[in-house]
């Protein structure tokens, strides 16, 4: 296992990477799924052999409250149907921590439960917030779980200019589930999970 990295340089690199993803031209993305709550696109990841997914939708609430429901903290487990446990392992500052969480099996358990250990960082972005994360090789893997790996991921949440009590929520997710999995199953799970994320979040915020 690696020692914990210094949080400040890691946070800066992570933020810069997410801002770069946020600037990728629309023509590079291909629609993977569209629902009434969100649109999900994808493009080949630069980090691993899978895809970088982009999800976007308007959420009827203020930016701070939305991000409080997404980032590590007491709200996330209450509404995120995929997440089954979450522990904060280390806290560096109020906006910076290392968390371990587990996810439920998916697609009739073709995808078995996964465990992740992520560095998480929340910071300001334009008039809103960015909460982002990346997996670390830290702590032993617990029995009965496969350790997945999140390459740089994050959520940009900014108020709509003409309607500040609504927010545009844009996510970038590239998860390496690991284990012996058919890529088609992974792709189906990722796009549907991201679309469901928006509908579950909206219900939680009502």
From TrEMBL:
GO terms for molecular function: cholesterol binding; cholesterol transfer activity. Residues 29-206 form the START domain. It holds the Pfam family START. One of its GO terms (biological process) is cholesterol transport involved in cholesterol storage. InterPro entries: StarD4 (IPR042555), START-like_dom_sf (IPR023393), START_lipid-bd_dom (IPR002913). GO terms for cellular component: cytosol; endoplasmic reticulum. Signal peptide: none annotated. PANTHER family: STAR-RELATED LIPID TRANSFER PROTEIN 4. This is STAR4 protein. The lineage of its organism: Eukaryota, Metazoa, Chordata, Craniata, Vertebrata.
